[in-house]
Model the fold of this input.
Amino acid sequence: MCNHFDVIVVGVGSMGSATCYQLAKRGVRVLGLEQFNISHTLGSHHGGTRLIRQAYFEHPSYVELLKAVYPLWRALESETGVDLFHQVGALYLGSPDCELVAGSQLAATAYDIPFQSLSPKEVEERFPAFRCPENWVGFFEPNAGFLRSEAAVAAMAQRALEAGAVIRGQTKVVSWKSDSAQVTVRTETDSLTADRLVLCGGAWTGSLLSDLGVALRVTRQVVAWVWPQSPSDFCTERLPGWAIDPNPAGEYRGIYYGFPLSENPLGVKLGWHAPGLESQPDDVDRQVHQQDLEWLPGFSEKYMPRLGSSLLGATTCLYTYSPDGHFIVDRHPRWDNVFFAGGFSGHGFKFAPIIGQALADLALDNSTRLPIDFLKLDRRAGEFQH
Ligand SMILES: Cc1cc2nc3c(=O)[nH]c(=O)nc-3n(C[C@H](O)[C@H](O)[C@H](O)COP(=O)(O)OP(=O)(O)OC[C@H]3O[C@@H](n4cnc5c(N)ncnc54)[C@H](O)[C@@H]3O)c2cc1C
Done:
């Protein structure tokens, strides 16, 4: 194998597989290096499914990227013939002024995203799996849904390979250096060079970019699969993707979220979206303990009484929080030929193809027309206040 490439991408997970694909498609000689398999269960993209939505409560600045990413997911599906995007809608429940509902409404109104407001009675009639407290509302986003995450990573890697990329699994990058003209990447067995380097290391971004001193926090997250007491209420016809914000206004501490009943992995998947136990990515407690899921029976009784808590399975997965909970996508401040994307803070998967496009633009042209300025490294503290 030739040891010099136009671009080396470190990490072929969600963002790295998308970047390899975008670069290879443009005729660039790209090498993707992945320490594990393509895909795998030790990073941030496993567990079968990820929510995709546009009424983005986290901040309206993401909406333009979300509008641009939908056609990219559809194109990937038609190129590969693999079902990736299940547009079954998503329902958000909470008090009218909680972060999830008010933030979704703000983004939907500003960007003309279709939605329906539902009373608690309408929620329970239309989606019988839920019990909706009287002073809450339902916000239904019909164009939302879920993605098949491992299948999507595999599909992006496959398209990259078909377009001429070289991808090496089981190859850990131990160091890299740049002299602005060329980068040298050292793996456990050899040394490779390229004109440009893109770092997409997920939970390992902190060590790949240790020179930047960005405080990235890796947390251990647990998701569970449950066999529901009334399975027909949990199939895609009666249950969309969903999220529940149990907090009062101004006191956001996290949300419950989940998916309709699936066959693989079997069950109704659900989790709690808030920082879990802070961990080192190479030393994560992968065992699921009883206390990880002690919220499940209480949750079920209160908000999904027909779910029950008959556990089929559970797994751990990693979030990588940036200091403000928003992504960081930028050029390295010291090296003109090094680019990176990290800190996806538990909500990045849906963006993968568009982040791949932005990184390919940056690596080839030093700039992109995509609206990613708000994700630059040196943003002001407080930039994301609504
Ligand atoms: C439980 C859970 C639920 C989530 N739910 C959603 C959701 O509903 N919607 C949503 O949009 N997002 C969701 N996310 C977040 C989303 O999955 C992540 O933001 C996204 O997968 C991050 O992509 P990444 O490329 O940064 O990380 P990864 O996909 O983990 O890829 C990083 C890759 O880099 C490799 N790597 C690192 N260092 C090296 C090295 N030195 N050498 C070689 N390879 C290296 C890793 O092995 C890994 O494969 C969820 C995440 C979790 C954990």
Observations:
- The two ends are 50 Å apart (CA to CA).
- Residues 10-11, 13-16, 33-36, 43-45, 47, 50-51, 172-173, 200-202, 204, 208, 221, 223, 271, 317-319, 344, 346-350 surround flavin-adenine dinucleotide (CB under 6 Å).
